[in-house]
Write the structure tokens for this entry.
Amino acid sequence: MPTTQDDLITALDLPSIRSQFPSFAETVNGHPAAYLDGPGGTQVPQRVIDAITDYLKHANANTCGAYLTSRRTNEVIASGRAAMADFFGCDSDEIVFGFNMTSLTYAMSRAIGRELGPGDEIVVTLLDHDANFSPWQALEEKGVTIQRVAFRAADCTLDMDDLARKINPRTKVIAVGYASNAVGTINPVNEVVRRAHEVGALAYIDAVHYAPHGPIDVRALDCDFLVCSSYKFFGPHMGVLYGKREHLKRLHPYKVRANTNESPNRWEWGTLNHEGIAGITACVDYIADLGRHVNPSVSSRRAAILAAYEEIVRYERGLCERLLQGLRTMPGVKVYGITDPMRFSERCPTIALRASGHTPLELATKLGDRGFFTWDGNYYALNVTEQLDVEKDGGFLRIGLFHYNTVEEVDRLLAALREILAA
Ligand SMILES: Cc1ncc(COP(=O)(O)O)c(C=O)c1O
């Protein structure tokens, strides 16, 4: 279905949502701040800030001590695991907390790589963020062959024929992004997982960019690993990994002796970011409460999360179409990736563009001065900018829309962009 004006009317309570984010009160040169930089990290609601502060006030301790605040800390970690299990649709013992997605992926790729050597192959894609590329490529030092899957320049979608060519019985891992943080494409991850399993390979999914935009169901997806960063879905700067229980138990992490052999603790080295984990529970509850507002009859937190995403997807598609409609009218502006509203189920509302005669940095700076926070560059999706031959010219201007953005912000952005391009 193409997007219509009705899609801009949402069951989400935007005024109530926006009142929960203290950072939205920011101004720049008298202009209200418009946060369109979410693909690099979203804003956090007050309850996340409160949860972090409360932890530090009332539970600040290390784990497993024989006293009150330490017991509270254990409870905070257990609650965080339960929240993320609801977020991913798995069990608590399949949740691993870490510093960020990149470090979790290095840790997991090192452990998987222990079992690999010459003759083994790993499939990665050129559409991925470097954090789901370089850790796997590093295993070339063990003699592993890296197969790189291309994407189609015309619409920035994965070349599934190339994927099919690159998979064979020697393939041991397929690492793929759920969605591109540069051009917004949502990859056919179900199909990729199916093909990985056909040849007995592990499927490792980078869901960092997708997580704030759509529901994740690791059981339905049947992936072996899936990793996210909570600062991309309204939480603190941390990484969270789902691993199938059997893999988390069987694989051998590099770890200190004092770390227990119990899973998931064997994957969590040293002291965790306890206050961050408290914040993660709060950001999952924030999303669940959006769902309870949309559908008050939901019975569980998981159901509430799914209800929230149903409406988030619908509303964000409306915003995305309005932005693209406006951009289409601007001479010299080229949008990379899927632009056909009939295909919006294949993209997140993350728009990469270039405007002739202006560098992305210049546009981001001029927009920034008017209160619009956007990104310029490659956002570590280095293969994407190289393949599209824009790396040497400053990459793209990236505009990231989220459920907390408004139609009015999109319209103001379009007006500002028109003014900048006309000057
Ligand atoms: C798609 C994607 N994957 C991975 C990462 C890296 O995440 P982290 O900063 O948590 O290591 C990012 C960060 O921008 C991302 O957008």
Q: What stands out?
A: The chain has a mean pLDDT of 96. Residues 376 and 397 are 5 Å apart (CA to CA). The pocket of pyridoxal-5'-phosphate is lined by residues 100-102, 129, 131-132, 177, 181, 206, 208-209, 229, 239, 379-380 (CB under 6 Å).
